[in-house]
Write a structure and sequence with these properties.
three-stranded antiparallel sheet; single chain; 8 helices; 213 residues; 37% helix; alpha+beta; two-stranded antiparallel ribbon; globular
Length: 213
């Protein structure tokens, strides 16, 4: 559960680190702060939907998306350099730069594929319309599968960075680098899937964008 103290701590951290974080092109994102700020302002603000039960098994992921490649393997192919795969589409060579911490990795088995807006966060982000929750609560299994395998949602990251993030939103966790790109993509995904943000999440995203050149 978010508290005013954790949000204040994140905002204080942003103030201390402003201008000190490098930007990476690992996952290219058009991060126009003006457009992202306008999109954030258009997102509905609502408390997290604590009443919706999340079960990862209800969100089928790593489906086959191209030939023998599943969504995870395709993300590794798309986001790496010099990637070679075997006849089962398993990457056997290549170089990847983890989007969240900038670590260079040459062994695909040491990488995680993260959902930039985590599945559990999506489940908690239903809008409120006419006093009722709408959105992920009503999604079919096929709609949940679509989100879980959307290439625009998937990010190659080190296991350490991904597990540090867990299912936290920006009020609790931000990457060590390219926070502007991360915030812009978070807002774009929430906009495209018609999700809500809670107040603490909104405030931290706005603070990140205010520091983007």
């Amino acid at each position: 559960m978010k508290t005013a103290a954790t949000t204040a701590a994140m905002l204080a951290t942003l103030a201390l680190t402003a201008g000190c974080l490098p930007v990476t092109d690992t996952v290219a994102t058009p991060a126009d702060p003006t457009e992202a700020t306008a999109a954030l302002a258009a997102l509905p603000i609502a408390p997290e939907d604590a009443g919706f039960h999340y079960d990862r098994d209800d969100w089928p992921h790593w489906k086959t998306v191209h030939g023998t490649c599943n969504a995870r393997e395709q993300a590794l192919l798309d986001q790496g350099q010099g990637v070679r795969a075997d006849d089962q589409c398993r990457p056997v060579a290549g170089t990847w730069v983890s989007a969240y911490d900038g670590v260079t990795v040459t062994d695909a088995s040491k990488l995680d594929i993260d959902h930039l807006v985590p599945l559990a966060e999506v489940a908690r982000s239903g809008r409120i319309e006419n006093g009722h929750r709408v959105g992920p609560r009503q999604w079919s299994r096929a709609e949940r599968e679509r989100y879980a395998n959307d290439p625009d949602v998937l990010v190659v990251a080190t296991a350490r960075a991904n597990r540090s993030k867990g299912d936290q939103d920006p009020a609790h966790w931000l990457p060590a680098r390219d926070r502007c790109g991360y915030a812009a993509r978070w807002i774009e995904i929430k906009t495209r899937y018609r999700l809500s943000v809670d107040q603490a999440e909104h405030d931290v995203l706005a603070a990140v964008l205010a520091r983007c050149a």
